[in-house]
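User: Hi! I'm working on a homework problem where we have to compare a predicted structure to a textbook description. Could you give me the structure for the chain below?
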Amino acid sequence: MKKILFTLAVAATMVWASPDRQAQIMADMREMLVAMEEIQRAGLYSSTQEMKAGVKKLQKTLKSLESDDVKLILPKDQVYAYQFAQKTARMLRTYSDDMIVSIEANRMDDALEDYTQLLKQCTSCHIRIRNW
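Assistant: Happy to help. Predicted structure tokens:
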């Protein structure tokens, strides 16, 4: 029985860490870009509901960055890449949570500052990990 459970666990891990999972993480990264664009557009037009929808879309995709699966898309030669990606994911979660609070309190200046911080986190990670 233990052998069967072990075999099933190994098989599940292999399926989960497949190229399909890598493709899904990359799709999530593209979805993050779309979410950031939606937040910016809504902020420029003072559409709080659309801003919140963009933040929620962004937060859905953070699960990929917060998981160990993010290693599938990170450079193997950069030992700090995983820790940096995890830290960035935590900061994105923090700023996006704060942005929702700011929007709900009708503090648009604070919400747009949170957006700026979100964008800085994205840029920082891409610069360091992708060597731009």
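For your comparison, note the following. The mean pLDDT is 86. The CA atoms of residues 2 and 8 lie 10 Å apart. Good luck with the assignment!
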